[in-house]
Amino acid sequence: MSALAQLQSDFLRCISGAGTPVASQLDGSQGIAPGLGLQIYTHAYAARLREALKSDHAALAWYLGDERWLRTCNDYIALYPSQHRSLRNFGNHLPTFLRRHSSHQANPRVAELAAFERALLDSFDAADAPRAEWQALLALPEECWPTLCPSFQPSLRRQSTRTNAVQVWMAAKSGQPLPRNRRPVGVHRAHWAIWRDADLITHFRSLSEAEAAALDHFRAGGDFAACCELLLQWLPADEVPAQALGFLGQWCSDGWVVSWTTA
Amino acid sequence: MCNAGIVPADRDPGVQAPGPRPWLGFGLGLRTEHFNDLLETNPAVDWLEINSENFMVAGGKPRRYLEAFRQRYPIVMHGVSMNIGGSDPLDFDYLRALRQLASDVQPAWVSDHLCWTGANGINSHDLLPLPYSDEAVAHVVDRVQQVQDFLGRELVLENLSSYVRFSTSTMTEWEFLREIATRSGCRLLLDINNVVVSARNHGYDSDDFLAGLPAPHIWQIHLAGHSDYGTHVIDTHDHAVPDAVWSLYESAIRRFGPISTMIERDDHIPPLPELIAELDQARRHFAAATAQPADAPQAASPSQDTVAA
Q1: Within-domain flag for B160
Q2: Fewer CB within 10 A of the end CB, N or C, for chain B?
Q3: Which of B64, B122, B232 sits opposite A83 (nearest CB)?
Q4: Which residues of B are less than 8 Å from A1 in CB distance?
Q5: Total domain count for chain B?
Q6: CATH code of residue B189
Q7: What is the model's pLDDT at position A19?
């Protein structure tokens, strides 16, 4: 390792709290004292990362309150130092971290809230894509329908929750009181789609069990015939084709579909 | 013009002296808070500087707005993540994304900071100072040349605000800047506020800093404010431009001639009209500096597209 590389490694470990002493490598002959200079960088390191997390996870910060939020941030920063070129991605591991964190394992709402906020963020600046026309689907020959598979907007995200995390998010956004939650985890089980519309506004809405299953099926590359088979879990056989077509129509209307492909 | 003899004996023979300095006028750092006001009011702003990383995303609002601004204003790309002084290998994934953005945006130039930002794969997201040593000069010059070859354009590098000095330094900050610029052929983004901050923190004369710079390499100026804590100054970029920065700005313009100038506010972002008024203040200081008679160096008129430094 070169002298420069060693110095940088030591300096970064020092300001990130790993404790490596570097004051002896600093020139204190004039101007600002080395200890004060190091304090400035040390403070800035953590403050900048915490600020990025708070900017992207305002609802989670509100839900946890100042003290728990600060502890959570500091633990995350220590365990997941940034390996990203942009602060935009610094919180990518936050939901995983919260699922494993001893203080939050008993409350899965915390990780689900973080995951919901990240889904909104990821939808916001996902790639642009054209929107499919419903008429193009109706024009398909009948024999193509069994192998039909829609492709979806890059901004479309899916999340399933076991808690009222999304209601917590809505309360945080609207300044309403925290929703009361006395029901056990799992009672609030819900499915969500998050997407960005043609005007670049990010939306979300809930999905029924059947719609969520159908959407997940198509997003995984499944075709229309297999989707109909899947929907038999929720619907009588004679209602399945119409319901499957209804889902496609709704998704197309919502702007989720980029194209209709067949084998 | 000062600093005529800028070419050191050890200039890389492949490095060309800079040509005429482009003149963009008076610009602003583009901030999301001002997106709609800028598009709706068309204020007197000559050009915009974007934070490159904010637009290195797949799509959505950032890229849609950028396209709208690109059609109305000359754009300069300013990055914070190149880690040009770092010891980790250059991140060519990042550089590919930067090159693609430059291809999309067609900026007047692409800048970053003369600093290191991380080590061992960890990004501090801070602009950290280098030791001013021969080792660091050789290291940075080599990396700048690699980046310039990859991007197909000269890089513009900004001087930092700093709060520590390394005992392995063997030269001043301005000597360090001069060595890197003249040996790599890169251009310099002179942040006047950073000079004021570092001069206060490290006890040097900011005029010595200006006098030591290689004038033809200076491509752009940043103006900003800072926070004064008495014993030291922190570059917060969250205040209006203070008198000390205006004064040094006038000195820089008198010394170097017209240089494309912008206001850079990163926090406590005020309403757009407040920044437009501050930009008008920059124009007045510029006019005062270029009108200096007698023994002051004469600045060329900025009425053309390019200005000889």
Answers
A1: yes
A2: N
A3: B122
A4: 87
A5: 1
A6: 3.20.20.150
A7: 75
Question: How far is A78 from A66, CA to CA, in rounded Å?
Answer: 18
Decide if A128 touches B, using CB distance below 8 A.
yes
Establish if A134 touches chain B: CB-CB under 8 angstroms.
no
Which CATH number covers residue A189?
Answer: 3.90.930
Domain membership flag for residue A92 = no
Overall average pLDDT of the B195-224 stretch: 97
Q: Which domain does A223 fall in, by range? A: 129-263
Q: Is residue B38 part of a domain?
A: yes
Of A30-39, A170-179, B69-78, B299-308, give the lowest mean pLDDT range.
B299-308
Please name the residue that has the structure tokens 């009588």.
A236
* Dist. CA A240–CA A225, nearest whole Å: 10
Range of the domain at B82: 26-290
For residue B13, being part of any structural domain is answered with no
Q: Which of A19-23, B62-66, B294-298 is least confident? A: B294-298
pLDDT for the residue B292: 59
Query: Which ipTM value was assigned to this complex?
Result: 0.89
**Does B11 map to a domain?**
no
Question: What are the C-alpha distances in Å from B287 to residues A64, B108, B282, B290, B300?
Answer: 53, 24, 9, 5, 11
Q: How many domains does chain A have?
A: 1
Count of residues for chain A? 263
Mutation target to probe the B interface, by most B beta carbons within 10 A, among A13, A20, A56, A86 is A86
